[in-house]
Structures are given as structure tokens and as C-alpha cells.
Amino acid sequence: MTESRTLYGYFRSSAAYRVRIALNHKGLDYTQAPVSLVKGEQQAPDYLALNPQGLVPALSDNGVLLTQSLAICEYLDEAYPDTPRLLPAEPVARARVRAIAQAIACEIHPLNNLRVLNYLKQELGVDEEARNGWYRHWVELGFAALERTLANSAGPYCFGETVTLADVCLVPQLFNARRFSVDLTPYPRLVAVGEVLERLPAFAAAHPSRQPDAPPA
Ligand SMILES: N[C@@H](CCC(=O)N[C@@H](CS)C(=O)NCC(=O)O)C(=O)O
Predict the structure, then answer these.
(1) I want to staple 120 with a disulfide (CB 3.0 to 4.6 A). Which of 7, 13, 126, 177 is the partner?
(2) How many Cα atoms are found within 13 Å in the side-chain-facing hemisphere of 192?
(3) Which domains are delineated in the chain?
(4) Count of CB atoms within 10 A of residue 217's CB?
(5) What is the pTM of this model?
(6) Which of 21, 53, 56, 165 should be mutated for ligand 1, with most atoms under 8 A from CB?
């Protein structure tokens, strides 16, 4: 059977960036269907029919529609067990990797999502400087804890010597932090791990600047 896989995403979406990394790392081919967040296409009826949450990414995998980046990554791990695994088999290691991934995806990222920043601006009248302060605050709080967590992990990556779901989440969050001018000097371990990861082909190819909907350089 010919495989067909479509990723609905946006070049700068860190959640879509996670899924691009996972697909690349696993060597799974996909085409991209860009959903422009700046044009509000995530709220268009045809996209809401795919993902009622109005968030990217969504992945169509051989006709099966999936949402939520962590759920998608875990699905890929389970549905394609012969590809490089993102979660360790051992339960404690698995829980530790999930904890790092969720510290980013469930604690840092949701507070800084576009719709949250828009709500601060449009409903609460928060100005740009304060919004950027809000953004940085939550990244700094999360990164400070992560920096301490990673001090105990041995290896070039977030958790040991193989790429895991934690790494899939870290690199997009670092990209976002730089975009919002977060000072990363207090997090040398995160930056060092990020530099190693960003050089890996699967991560490099997933970079926002290399996506079909990215503006020309
Ligand atoms: N927990 C979701 C988060 C998805 C998410 O927040 N996506 C953002 C882009 S990174 C989005 O679509 N935002 C649109 C909006 O805020 O209107 C996941 O991991 O997939």
C-alpha cells in the first residue's frame, strides 16, 4: 500500500516544528499543507472540520486524522515501531522523557500561544512591551527548571545518548525563545544540547526557515 501523509502546520508553529522533527527523525515521508496562523486560517471552517480546536498541527496518516503534537509523536512511535524510537522502553526513563517534553509542551508553550497573546492584547488591553514581558517570564521560569533537570542527565541530549521526545520539544522552544529575545545565557546546558541537536539533519530540515510557507530569506 502506498503511504500518504499530510502535515497541516505553519512554518513558525513550534508544535508543528515538533512533528516535523519527529517525522524526519523517523524517516517518514510527508507533504505539508500550510495553515497560515497570521491569516487566521486555523479558524476557517474547512480546517476546523479537521481540528475543532483550531490549532496546528494536525496530521493525516493514511487517512487517519490526528491532532496534538505529543499525541502525534507518540502515535508515530507506536504505529511505526521499526523507526527510531522517541520514547525509551524502560518505564522510569520513559516517564522522565515525558516529564521534560511536558514541561515544555504543557507548561511553557500554552501560556505563550498566539491566541493567548492575542487575548492579552485585544481583551485585556496589554501593550506590546508587557506582552513580551509575559512571554519571557514563562519561558524563563520553565527554562530555569529545565536547566536544573538537565544537569542530572548524562549525555549530549536532553535525556542520555539518544534523541527523544524531550529533544523534539526543546529545539522549537529554543527557537521561539530567541525569536522573542529571551536572554539564554542563564541556560548554558539547554543551549549546548540545542546546538548539538540543531546540527542533526532531521532537526535542521525541520527548521522554520526551510519550510514551504516560510517567507524568502
Ligand atoms: N498542545 C497543542 C498546541 C498547539 C498549538 O498551540 N498550536 C499553535 C501554534 S504553535 C496554534 O495553532 N495557534 C493558533 C492560535 O493560537 O490561534 C499541540 O501540542 O499540538
Answers:
(1) 126
(2) 13
(3) 7-84 (3.40.30.10), 91-203 (1.20.1050.10)
(4) 5
(5) 0.97
(6) 56
